[in-house]
Amino acid sequence: MEVYPYCYSGGKKLRCGYTTGSCAAAAAKAAATHLLTGKEQAAVSILLPKGIQLCLSSELCSVSPGKAVYGVRKDAGDDADVTNRLLICAEVSFFPGREILVEGGEGVGRVTRPGLEQPPGAAAINQIPRRMIEQEVREVLDRFGANLGARVTVSVPDGQRVAAKTYNPRLGIVGGISILGTTGIVEPMSGAALIQTIRAELDMLRAAGDTPILLTPGNYGERFASKEIGLPLDRAALCSNFIGDALDYADHLGFTGLLLVGHIGKLVKLAAGVFQTHSRVADARMEIFAAHAALAGADRMLASALMQADTTDRAVELLEQAGLRDPVMKTIIEKIGFHLGQRLKNTPFGAVVFSNQYGILGQTLGAEQLIFQIKRACWRKEDAGKIVRGECRTRGPGTDDPESGAGDPLL
Question: At 14, is the secondary structure helix, strand, or coil?
């Protein structure tokens, strides 16, 4: 019987789940045990990287001479995970020797671009899940005294369909989902899987070249950058609400420049040094507007109206009506630039802030130069016949709600 730990988020007790990597390791162990004992395995226990024992139910898929296939259904607990309830399968066969080979089959993605954890051409099974699979299969072989090697092929019958809802298309991982996990446990609402994916996209962009990158919280920012600013999206990365984590990792990687483009509903929080922009973490939007309006000479009535505004677009409209939009946005943009400078120690940066009604509300120092550099890099590629400037990518995951911060996907 499965026993899951719990965690707390937003004042709620939430049930944890387990990763696709844990599922693959358990399925491989069940298949290997069946091959050696001839007995069906209804459940298996695996050792997670943190030293925790996890018992998972398994499903026999098929057995034939010299080969067994088992599956374990992914349980994400209370996390909003698109891979929840997927059947993660492992086919195991033995051969002479001691090597354990881990391969990807149907529904497991294949890496096509450099910069990710696995090289181009390899199955999208990350290093820690690979080690977990090898460890569990080796434990079975050693327990029964079998001096053999094993081939483990991981497959996900519905993986290709579900992969379209993940970051994999953006990362150049084709044909299925990735087998992921660093601890073996999924913590609801922790964002760990999304941060891991954001870092993977930044790794890929860094490996692809030295030109500046475009960073946006989600599809609003990407569409605006493409359609209104004319920026290409081949050097773009999504960061959802994890702007601070993305900036820190980008700074670590040493990009030649970073341009942040986002809706005022997200980026206004940066003016207060808030870099995790989900509303459950911090929501200082209207307080920021009211404070900067007061600095620009707003009266108490306008400050009160700003504090009661439902959306940042409404707040900008109130400032426009009072003739204070430009001075208020000037000081807000200056503060955004200040806090970005505190976060990015080694990377030239710029930011562009927009609203639905008024378009570009302002941009920090350095933004214009980065816009030019990103476009120039695109023009050079055009001359080489490699890309078409301004082409929008297929709609991918991100945070589409600039006000609430909802919509974060987790792999």
Answer: strand
